[in-house]
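re the bet — no i am not wrong, look at it urself. input seq straight from the record:
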Amino acid sequence: MMMKHYYKYFISLLTVILLFSCTEKDKFPSPLKGLKIDDVYMDADEKSRTIEVKAVFGGQVSWEATDSATNDKPTWLKDIKLSNGKIEIQVEENVTINNRCAQIVLFTPEQNANNYEENVKVYFKIIQSRNKMFDGLDMSEISIPYSACDTLISLGYELSKAKIEIKGVGEENTSWCKASLSSSQFLKIHTDMYKGIELRQALVRMIPTASTSEVADSLIAHKAILITQHHNEVFDSLTIEDRVVGYDQKTDTVRFEHDLKDISCQIIDDQTTQVARWIKAKLVGKELIFYDISMNKALDSRNATVTLYLLDGSIEKSTVKTTFKVTQEYQSLIISEDKKIETDHTAKSIDLHVKSNAKYQIEMPGDWVKCILKPADEYNDTLTLNFSENITNQKREGDMRLLFSGQEAAKIHILQKTNPKIVINFADQRKEMSFQKSGGEFNLPIKTLTPDFKITKKASWISLSNKTTEGIDQYYYKVSVPYFAGDAFERLDTIVITTFGDTVRFPIKQHKYIYLTEAKHELEEGDSFKLDAKTNLEKSISWSSSNSEILRVSTNGLVKSVNRGTRIRNANDNPAKITVKASIGEYDGVADYFDYCEVTVFIPADKIGIKRGGGNYEKTDNKVTSDCPVTVTNNYSKTITLQSLYVDGVGALDVSDKENETSTIKLKAESSMTFSLPKQMSGVSNPQVTLTFTVNDKEYTKKVNY
């Protein structure tokens, strides 16, 4: 038993020794390690994009894509090519009304995964915007006369990538309508002459040229214009209003714009339904003349129907005709004491008094006011007007007409005003608005049934713009609150909304319970300055820096730049910008109430300007040929000593001081000096200028593109 135990121990020990004696295969960092790729945003008509990345793929990286809408492989994403330092994206043109998005993942394939220290995946998105080709077109319908014509419509901008479809409305035949894009900025509509009775319509639809049947028709970006061609009738241009003649009038004439050739006239008495005997008519050129009108001795008016019809058969069979009424008045009298009634929006009753020598009818301007007639005696009546409440956003008005046998004898104008009440109706029922130092904007909701309300403000620091309407009683104004400068901690304004019967005030407060005396500051590396914070509250102030490795701030606001020994400023480099924040913590509903100062940390090299002077300069394929001199400007606060000035492709420029016989030149603050090239620069690729100078016992180098 003891021997068996030792034997097991010996086998376990031997296994451990063998495992430690084995050496792992060398592994390398993944080519995707540390790689971050921003989302790629592409226009609808953009088909390819190349982005540069800091990665060497070496054929060891693959990609997969998933459409965010379908969770399938996006058919519109044609290809992604991975090369060293570049990612080439190829997509189809987006002809739809929707944005589309693909989630991309870069990864090392499974067969290569064992070659790397870790399996890294990199994700980014490709977002392609919807097709906005037709966003600027607001036309929807065009009306065209029956005659053959060409209509040219200005689109306002070029539509070179659009094509046209034409579909019939109610019938399939659209051969009468043709459409084309003329010069890509005009839509030309051609219509044939129409001889039918009813109007006809066609739908002209513009879609992107790249559209295919693979895309659902409802998703394709488009602009549809309804073309309506009117029917051809001889009386289309005739506008004949019903005629009224006096009780003793003998003639009347209706004048037209064109000759009434081949047209006949018939007059039928409405009461007898026979040819009228009390009036005759004849057509002479462009005039319809009524004559032999006999005096109306009846108590009521009399009416006749006049029919004008084309001589293409009997009047019963004719489809091309028009009718109107002729009414002859009778002598009567009616007098109203009131010519105008005006009341508020509430429901109420008002009495009127009318005198008349005959029976009359009453025609009201609408169902919002009703009338009850109460005879007082043989000649006097009382008319009681019963108004319903006006709950609309429009004043209600019209004429109450008093009629003798349907003819107006008198009228009274009636006006009912709107409800003047005003309500500021925020969803959270707020009664005022508060802003911090930076300001902002919001939409002020105003609910009222009086659309001609007035809105004013007491102060001048806020602004009102962009009035919009929703429904019959909802309005919005955009209120803009600017940046709060100066030494004050708080300021107030009031927006006043008034109607003819109501006034509402909405206060706006802007505050900076803590603020810094400086919003921006420039600080040389290694220097410091004191930043003052002011508050009108008994709260402690805490200080912080957005990058304490470059800029530090003490508990009393002393800001100090860390001396990192920066001596070289390369081309296209910029000084660091750090935010110093002073906070009083939570206050007035704000979790962290603070103000900040943007501090720019510079070195003397940032204050030295180097630029190319005038002369012969030529650049082709990034290769420069030039004899232009170089100008150095000292914007630093102290005199600098130029040690050397070097231009690629030319060599060192002479910076010696001939007058003082020294090998260097001193350049005072706020001064410049120009140096000529010792020889012409010829075909130098992307040349740079390198300046070396000393100041404060330190040497600095500044590089710029020539």
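see?? Residues 1-25 have pLDDT under 50 and may be disordered. told u. also The chain has one helix and 58 strands. so pay up
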